[in-house]
Amino acid sequence: MAVMTLFVTMAMPRFRDKLDLDLKRQARMLSGTIRFLYNQAAVKNKTYRLHYDLDKQTYWVESSAKHIRLSETTHSKSPWDKDEKPKSSFTEDKEFLKKPVELRKKIKFKDIKTEASSLPITSGAAYTHFFPHGYAEQTQIRLETEKGKIFTIVVQPLTGMAKVYDHDLKE
Prior knowledge:
Blueprint: H1 2-16, H2 18-44, E1 47-53, E2 58-64, E3 91-92, E4 101-102, E5 107-114, E6 125-131, E7 135-136, E8 139-145, E9 150-155, E10 162-165
Antiparallel strand pairs: 1-2, 1-6, 2-3, 2-4, 5-8, 6-7, 8-9, 9-10
């Protein structure tokens, strides 16, 4: 009986940390995808973007053979064209991710801040762009568990590195 109690006592912290481990795993997987896309943009001479759907808690890869400048990615349109959606030269690219990646249960995008957005995006769509000339759109992604634990991923524009922080970074 004493051995069983000792085993349960030692194992309990591991069970409580499962959600934190899932958060860490999810952040590292997203970070790896970001670094991979940065390299592929240069190798394949294509513009890629990581499309985040904050409502469905998913992300996927899109690409464009057209060379695009960051100013063209903001999808700004005239206020008079309310019914017309801006046309995008990006299409879903299933070469790297066969289907959209869904965040694990109890983990969500808290918000995403990019160069194209002056405020953090908390719903709808957000994008991180990767350009063939070796530049990635600076992005800060905050992932949160249902218990409030936050990991922050910061994309560096010149290196494409996606650094994972095990805490909330406030700008």
